[in-house]
Amino acid sequence: MLQATMLPPMRKRQKRTEGAEGPSFGVEVKFPEVRLYLVEKKMGATRRGFLAQLARAKGFLVEDILSDQVTHVVSEQNQAPGLWAWLRGRGLKNLSAVHVLDISWFTDSMKEGRPVALEARHRIQDILPEASPHPPMVELSRYACKRRTSTENHNEIFTDAFEVLAESYEFSQCDSQCLAFRRAASVLKSVPCPLQHVGAAASLPCLGGHTRAVMQEILQYGQSCEVEKILCNDRYQMLKLFTSVFGVGPKTAEKWYRGGLRTLKDALEDPSIELNSMQKAGFLHHKDISQSVSRAEAMALGDILHETALGISAHAVLVLTGGFRRGKAFGHDVDFLLSTPEKGKEEILLLSLVDSLRRQGILLYCDHHTSTFDINNMPGVSFEAMDHFAKSFLILRLYDSQVEGGLQRVEGQDDGRSWRAVRVDVVTPPMERYAFALLGWTGSRQFERDLRRFARKENRMLLDNHGLWDNTKVLLTAPPHPAQTDGSSPLVLLG
Ligand code: UTP
Ligand code: MN
């Protein structure tokens, strides 16, 4: 019963399309050449969701995000000038090739159960003959959670540079500078077109003098002197190399660097270094797990875990989360949420799952964190800390034959193996905490950080992976605490 109201669990070997999982997951796509996008303005989120579901059930592809993949934009009750101005501001590469249509085309197509032929009456005509070469800069919020961001980054030349600077500050434990560059990168990822001059960034939030100077240099010379210096810096390179090993954080990397280590081999051979089991596994599978994971590989792992979980409990619910849930094509690991409506049985389900993976011979490493979740201790003091749900950090073996299209080929790495190692995280919240855990594990990190900041500063509420509280510390949706004698009642769950 409960399962039916959640995101659909993963199923085995079904036709799927990148970026179109979620509600359409598992439904056969009948018209792959048509990719719909429903404009939420005027239509409203509820009706949009309903229409999207209807179309998906009829085999249409409906994109949640407006990207260059969309072929048909459907709008209801929007005036042509406003709609077209909005579409131009989205930074699409070839807007003129997109069919911009009235809801009547959608309704006719739903009636027919197929995309009906386009007629003049269906089209919403552009009143300007040509699209402006410089789309107007959209106003962006200071909060990442209030910005629309697609997976397409039009300003990679700047954001890559900011990432190097952020990482370098992170290695030096300069947290505020590190965060400033991560914030700036996040803002630029929301800009729907390439920035051609620093003036165009004048109205953007979170860009300080330092970030603007770096941008100016890149625009003028194609690179930033400061960034180039960091990239050539021995310490930066070494810390980057050491932290690329699973289980090695910035502090350990710094210690190794100070101790004179310069290669991974040095670290392995130094008798004074005692590696913990996570680091041992990290070294053993370093090549494999430093290579990105493709969406097809993530889906294959989803199939394996889902089948294994269902073999343990028919009520098991498994959902892909993290970067892949946001539509990313590649990730550094694969994140899953596992739960069950059977109260208090989540952790045992996870332990059984790990055990079964071990028996199948595909478990290469497991670091299990037992649940420390106690609703009576909520909300916790440290909001950036790891959540309290039971979770396992795994390394799994994935075979070529299990992946649609096979494993990714890595140049210069043909050792004849038919498998690769992949990092997988599985977290098991109790079902009544599932929504908050899903929200928290979907990311991105900046989105989550700003969502919490937004809740705290704008709504005087506390949000984390376990729940949402108002500042009087009353748990939303939970029954009144026995100690609650002041007559105040719990608030209603948001969204
Ligand atoms: P990841 O580090 O896996 O990031 O954490 P990602 O967005 O999926 O990116 P790649 O592709 O793997 O590099 C996923 C989300 O889970 C949250 C993080 O905040 C992040 O947004 N998370 C991670 C937690 O809430 N708690 C944790 O203990 C770990
Ligand atoms: Mn991830």
Set out the fold topology.
Layout: H1 2-5, E1 35-38, H2 45-57, E2 61-62, E3 72-75, H3 80-88, E4 99-102, H4 103-112, H5 156-171, H6 175-189, H7 209-221, H8 225-232, H9 234-243, H10 250-258, H11 264-269, H12 277-284, H13 286-289, E5 293-294, H14 295-312, E6 317-321, H15 322-325, E7 330-331, E8 334-339, H16 346-359, E9 363-369, E10 390-399, E11 419-428, H17 434-442, H18 445-459, E12 461-463, E13 468-470
Parallel strand pairs: 1-2, 1-3, 3-4, 8-11
Antiparallel strand pairs: 5-7, 6-8, 9-10, 10-11, 12-13
Helix pairs in contact: 5-6, 5-7, 5-8, 9-10, 14-16
Bound molecules: uridine 5'-triphosphate (UTP) and manganese (II) ion (MN).
Task: Report what the structure shows.
The radius of gyration is 25 Å and the shape is globular. It is built from 18 helices and 13 strands. It has helices spanning 2-5, 45-57, 80-88, 103-112, 156-171, 175-189, 209-221, 225-232, 234-243, 250-258, 264-269, 277-284, 286-289, 295-312, 322-325, 346-359, 434-442, 445-459, and strands spanning 35-38, 61-62, 72-75, 99-102, 293-294, 317-321, 330-331, 334-339, 363-369, 390-399, 419-428, 461-463, 468-470. Helix content is 37%, strand content 13%. The protein is of the alpha/beta class. α9 (234-243) crosses α10 (250-258). Residues 322-323, 328, 331-333, 335, 386-387, 440-441, 443-445, 448, 465 line the site of uridine 5'-triphosphate. Uridine 5'-triphosphate binds at residues 322-323, 328, 331-333, 335, 386-387, 440-441, 443-445, 448, 465.
